[in-house]
Amino acid sequence: MSVNRRKHGSNLRLVLLVLWLVCYVGYCQFENTNDFDNPLVTQMIYRRLFISTAALNQELATKAKFCVKDQDADWKKSFSFSNLDFLSSCNNKTKGNMIKSICTAAEMRFYLNGFLSKTDNKQEYLQPNENCNLTSWVSGCEPGWSCSVDHLTEQEVDLQSKKDFPQRTRNGMPCCEGFFCPRGLTCMIPCPLGSHCPLATLNTTTGVCEPYTYQVPPGQPNHTCGGADVWADVSSNDEVFCSAGYYCPTTTRKVPCGKGHYCRLGSTSEKPCYKLTSCNAGNQNMHALGIMVICGVVIILLIIYNCSDQILTTRERRQAKSREAAVKKAKANQRWKVARTAAKKHVTETNDGETHKMLERGYSSEVDSSSSPASFSAAVQPSFEIEDDAAAGSNERPSGKRGKGHRIKNSQTQILRYAYNQIEKEKAMELENRDPTFSGIVNMATYSEMKKRTLMELSFQDLTLTLKSNGKHLLRCVTGTMKPGRITAVMGPSGAGKTSLLSALAGKAVGCNLSGLILINGKQLSIHSYKKIIGFVPQDDIVHGNLTVEENIWFHAKCRLPAEQSKADKVLVVERRVIDSLGLQAVRSSLVGTVEKRGISGGQRKRVNVGLEMAMEPSILFLDEPTSGLDSASSQLLLKALKHEALEGVNICMVVHQPSYSLFKTFNDLVLLAKGGLTVYHGPVENVEEYFSRLGIIVPERINPPDYYIDVLEGVVTDINSDVGIKELPQRWMLHRGYSVPLDMRNNDNSAVEGPTFVRELLGDVTSNFRLRGEKIRHNFLKTRDLSYRRTPSMWLQYKYFLGRIAKQRMREAKLQATDYLILLLAGACLGSLIKKSDENFGSPGYVYSIIAVSLLCKIAALRSFSLDKLHYWRESAAGMSSLACFLAKDTIDCFNTLVKPLVYLSMFYFFTNPRSTFLDNYIVLVCLVYCVTGIAYALAIFLQPGSAQLFSVLLPVVLTLVATQPKDSEAMKIIADLCYPKWALQAFVIGNAEKYSGVWMITRCGALMKSGYDINKWNLCIMILLLIGVATRKIAFVGMVILQKR
């Protein structure tokens, strides 16, 4: 074993000796024979060159941070040469003196500073220096030529030196291939990757050194064309750039692009064309691919919309079938109960008759116990009891519980079955009590399942309402009481203050001075403390037209009924209390309709408007002219439903305009107002004719009393044959009720008061207008203690309900959405086709037009989210629904468009222009831009009227883009430009594209970014600013929505 070790040790020493001899001989041979092609020498030169170019790159990163993102990556893309043949060739050409001809770090820094400080793009020479100046201009100072360090100084060239400027005036010679020699410098700088720097050849005709543009200096016959002379931005000089249609793997070799490939300007390799695209030498035509992408997007959208619509239709159909089955089952059970009750009654009467006959014949003592009426009934009763038990199962309230700690979910069928059984039971009771006897009234009063609301009595004393602007009286000294379980009608001529009285009682009187007392159950409390159980039906039919009747009612029921109320009870409320009572069964699945799209009739729409408030089971219900526009039958149906509400203890107050006699007799109480808001009568309806007859105002025969009284108060009827004048009727009522009469009314003071001057009146109007706005804001932020003790669904649960409703509305607006997408498609195709691609500015003009087009189109579309639903939001917010839930739901649904619309636009624009940046980079920027402009559109829609909002949506993108792209000559302009969102969107687009330009494009990239004032490191900042603007404008819009709402 020791012998083997000794043997291996001698072999190792022999190998090391041979390697040393080879290296020594090779070195001596290299020193003696001047073998400059030796790879070791080339690698040594490359390392020295690496140091020099790294210094250049470091200097660029220091002085031009705005255009260098990753210093190492940019250097590798510019000067990481894989083929070093051009170094070997140059070293042979210079006979080993190549290092002495390469620019040092100081000279490269001098060249870079000259470029960065250059103001004129056409300037092609540097400032004077030690080697090239007015007194010393050697041949190496000419473009395309270089010199080496003077041999007499024997100084070693330090390429890393950033301060020393070596004396380089000897051995002038043409610049090597792969290098460029600027005019005014006597050294060589390596050409970056993506360039083509061959030796120039003289064109004897023009005297130009081609492929460059410089000429041989006159008077120097020994001076020939050299190499490349300048590396600058492509707009001023593109001579060294590798031509489009070719690629340059090295700086000395140019290869034409192969078939199925394309090569852009300054390419180092050829890129394959995508399938279904047509290639030319310099680019690929991606129109076909773009058309395929948009076809795919359109197909996906069609599938989504069609499936969504089909899902809605299928779901409605299934619900209708379940509902019809439950109705049939409930009616069958009710018929069986009626038949069973009749059979029991018949059997009992028969048994009673037979017993009576037997007693008359004297057989009462011999009658067997089995033949007694009790036993006979017991023999018959079991069959009824069995059936009763079978039918009773459908009448049990779905509990949703199974044992302790376990909860199950009731099926829709069980819920509907219970609800409709209850409905049929109530209908049967109404039929029994149509002509009630004393026992029937007792049964109705003691009916255990009759729901009673929170009883609220509304009293008001000396209620006076005066406009703040001009002091005009809308109501004056109105006193009365509205009791629960009764329907009070408020009537009077136009201008009598009927709606003002309703608004004052409901707490909606804004811009007025309110005096007097309003008492709730005898206590002076704020009406806003009970807003969750108070319903207000406005005069206008504010109903969502793109929802069905059932969807409108169900939404209010879900959001406003108690959260702890079971689904079965909610079904009972919606089906029986609203849809069935108001006669909306036939149109329950029909769209309400809008101005453009026909829906249900006007009378049905009016009943739906009332049903929205009935669905929340109010304790007080105010209605502003609910019967206007209804025929007699519809009015009777509405009053019948309100009568049912009154039986449950609801206090109903409604403004009525000239009701029919039969309708008039349906009311319990009447408030009759005269012009000026003065009370003429307030009391039971049955006593009104008696009261006025005592005043000498007798209704003629065949004249409707309310019409006659209104005509009298209006002054249409003058021959009333009464000693009491029309203006004295309010005083007579006050004296009749024992109220105090104001002094001015008592003295009949009608003296005219001199009006204010024009200036004073104008100032008063302006002041009152500001006060009115301030009062509205204070009114909207009014916080009161909730005394209704009704716990409605939480904000997040309401957000869920809003989300479902808005999603349905958007699905039914598929054509409108498709139109938006089609316009975006056309805009992308037109802009992509018309805009000429330019590498000088990295596609900036195309991005400018894209920002304007996308901002304009997306803003106008986003206006619809809030402009068209203001009235609906005001009504829902006044009813106690969450404003935040509504806003978040709309914004969440609009996020779908925020994600899809950029995809639709880019599917045409990107594939028509084919920029160097990736599709994902452009998509991210465009998504953030759409998110930003959508928030701005929300604010415009909320703060402005629809016409003004559309005008600003068109002007803002154009004006802000023009401001953002103007030269920033002053600090003020920079600050203004920073506030414009198009600046950040354009900067993100340009930066994303500029990042893909490297190598020979470095100077072009730095020049373009310096001219625009952009920073390549701020792409993330641009994205964040766009998102922050979107969030900030949404917050502003939400605050405006809360502040400016009308309650």
Automatic annotation (TrEMBL):
CDD domains linked: ABCG_EPDR (cd03213)
GO cellular component: membrane
Membrane-spanning residues: 286-308, 818-835, 847-866, 923-943, 1019-1044
Subcellular location: Membrane
Region (Disordered): 388-410
Signal sequence coordinates: 1-30
Basic residues composition bias: residue spans: 400-409
UniProt domain ABC transporter: residue ranges: 458-701
Keyword presence, Transmembrane: yes
Keyword DNA-binding carried by entry: no
Pfam families referenced in this protein's UniProt entry, alphabetically: ABC2_membrane_7 (PF19055), ABC_tran (PF00005)
Principal cellular location given in the protein's record: membrane
This protein's UniProt keywords: ATP-binding, Membrane, Nucleotide-binding, Signal, Transmembrane, Transmembrane helix, Transport
Protein's membrane topology: Multi-pass membrane protein
InterPro entries per the UniProt record, alphabetical: AAA+_ATPase, ABC_transporter-like_ATP-bd, ABC_transporter-like_CS, ABCG_dom, ABCG_transporters, P-loop_NTPase
Recorded family membership: Belongs to the ABC transporter superfamily. ABCG family. Eye pigment precursor importer (TC 3.A.1.204) subfamily.
PANTHER family to which the protein is assigned, alphabetical: ABC TRANSPORTER DOMAIN-CONTAINING PROTEIN, ABC TRANSPORTER G FAMILY MEMBER 28
Protein name per Swiss-Prot or TrEMBL: ABC transporter domain-containing protein
Lineage: Eukaryota, Viridiplantae, Streptophyta, Embryophyta, Tracheophyta
